[in-house]
Amino acid sequence: MTAQKERKKPSFPLILSVLSIVFYCAGFLRVELDLNEQKKRINALESIEETKSRASILDLVTKSKEINPDPHSNKRQRKRRNADTIKNKTEIKNVQATVLKILSELRQHHSLSQSSSCLLGVPGPPGPRGKEGSRGKRGQKGDQGIMGLPGKSGKQGIMGPSGPKGDVGLKGQKGDMGPAGMPGAKGEPGKSISAPAVAVSPKTLTANEGESALFQCSVSGNPKPVLKWSKLNSLSQMSPSVVSGGKLLLKNVAGNDAGKYNCSAVNILGKAHALVQLVVNVHPRVSLLPGPHCAIKGDNYTLPICHVTGYPTPVVSWRKSSGQLPQGRVKYNNSALQILHVQKEDSDVYVCSASNLLGRVEKKTLLVVASLPRFIVKPPVKIVVKLRGTLRINCRASGDPKPVMR
C-alpha cells in the first residue's frame, strides 16, 4: 500500500511545469489589461486634440469674414476705392498664410502628443535561438591540478632476465687420488717437422696494359710457414687487397708494374723463396714539339727530337706530309731527323710515327724554310749630283719572307 501511495504522489517536475503555466497565464492577463488602459488614454487625447483644432479653425474663419464681409460690395466700390481694394488683398494673403502656419503647428503638436502619450509596452516573448557562433580562441593552459590518488596496482609483470653470475667460491681441499684407469689405445704417429718449400706458377707472365695479372705461390712445411709477396727493387709494400693467401692479383696493370716479384715462406726450420716475372706490354706514346720551326735556306737543319715510349720498344719512322723525304739530303736515327742544305720546297709538315704490338701513334711538326734577303739592284757607293738637280736611286731586294725596304 505504501508503494502505491508513493506512486500516486505527483513528481516535482510536474508541479513545476503546472506552476510555470499558471504564472505565464497571469502575466498574459496583466499585459492585456495594461494594453486596454493605454488604448483608452490615447483615444481621449485624440478627441481633445480634434476639438481644439476645430475651435481654432472656426476662430480663424470668423476673423477672415470680419476682414472681408462681402466680396460683392468690393466690386461695387472698386471704381471708387482702388487703393482700399489693394490693401484688402494683401490682408487676405496674410491671413491665409497665418492659417496655414497655425494648421502646420497643430499637426506637429498633434503628432508630438501622440508620440508622448505612447507608453513602453511589455516585452514580447523571446525569439527563436540563433545559429551557433564560431568557436572561440583556445584559452591559456590552466594551472596544474592537484595530483590524484594513486591507482590500483597492476598485474604482476613477466619475470626479468636472470642476474649476473656471482663470484666463484673458495677452492675446496684436494681430494684423494683415485685408482689408476685402463691404458688407452696407441695414438697415430705425428707429422714430422720440415723446412718450408715454395712453388710458383707461372714463373713468367706477359700482360697488356690495362689487363690483370695473377700469380700462384704454394708453400709446404711443418710448422706451417708464413707466406709473403714482395716486389724486387721496390720500397713500397704490397697492398692487402692484392695478396690473398698464396695468390698475387694485379688489376689494371701499367708499365711501372712490370718487374720481378718474390714469394717467400718462413718457419722455425728455415726460409725459402721463388721469383716470378711480369712483362707488361705498353701502348706507344709520342712527344714532339709542333712548331713551326724556321730554317735558313742552304743550312743543315735537325727537326725536334721525337720522344717515344712503350713496350715492346716502338719502331720510329719519319715521313713528309705532302710527299717523300728529300733524296740524298736526309739523315735520321730513330728519334731525330736531319735535312742537309734545306731548300724552299722542304717547307712542310713532318710526321713522326711510333708502332708496336699494341698500336700506332703519330705526332706532327711544321718546318718553314726562309731565305735571307739579298739585293737584286744595289745602289752605288758614291753619287755626284748637280746643285738643284734630281736624284733617283734604284734599290731592289729579294727574300722569303719578302723583305721590307727602308
From TrEMBL:
<dbReference type="Pfam" id="PF07679">
    <property type="entry name" value="I-set"/>
</dbReference>
<feature type="domain" description="Ig-like">
    <location>
        <begin position="196"/>
        <end position="281"/>
    </location>
</feature>
<feature type="region of interest" description="Disordered">
    <location>
        <begin position="60"/>
        <end position="87"/>
    </location>
</feature>
<feature type="transmembrane region" description="Helical">
    <location>
        <begin position="12"/>
        <end position="31"/>
    </location>
</feature>
<dbReference type="Pfam" id="PF01391">
    <property type="entry name" value="Collagen"/>
</dbReference>
<dbReference type="InterPro" id="IPR007110">
    <property type="entry name" value="Ig-like_dom"/>
</dbReference>
<dbReference type="InterPro" id="IPR003599">
    <property type="entry name" value="Ig_sub"/>
</dbReference>
<keyword id="KW-0812">Transmembrane</keyword>
<dbReference type="InterPro" id="IPR013783">
    <property type="entry name" value="Ig-like_fold"/>
</dbReference>
<feature type="domain" description="Ig-like">
    <location>
        <begin position="284"/>
        <end position="367"/>
    </location>
</feature>
<feature type="compositionally biased region" description="Low complexity">
    <location>
        <begin position="113"/>
        <end position="122"/>
    </location>
</feature>
<dbReference type="InterPro" id="IPR036179">
    <property type="entry name" value="Ig-like_dom_sf"/>
</dbReference>
<feature type="compositionally biased region" description="Basic and acidic residues">
    <location>
        <begin position="62"/>
        <end position="73"/>
    </location>
</feature>
<protein>
    <recommendedName>
        <fullName>Ig-like domain-containing protein</fullName>
    </recommendedName>
</protein>
<feature type="region of interest" description="Disordered">
    <location>
        <begin position="113"/>
        <end position="194"/>
    </location>
</feature>
<keyword id="KW-1133">Transmembrane helix</keyword>
<keyword id="KW-0393">Immunoglobulin domain</keyword>
<dbReference type="InterPro" id="IPR003598">
    <property type="entry name" value="Ig_sub2"/>
</dbReference>
<dbReference type="InterPro" id="IPR013098">
    <property type="entry name" value="Ig_I-set"/>
</dbReference>
<dbReference type="InterPro" id="IPR008160">
    <property type="entry name" value="Collagen"/>
</dbReference>
<keyword id="KW-0472">Membrane</keyword>
<dbReference type="Pfam" id="PF13927">
    <property type="entry name" value="Ig_3"/>
</dbReference>
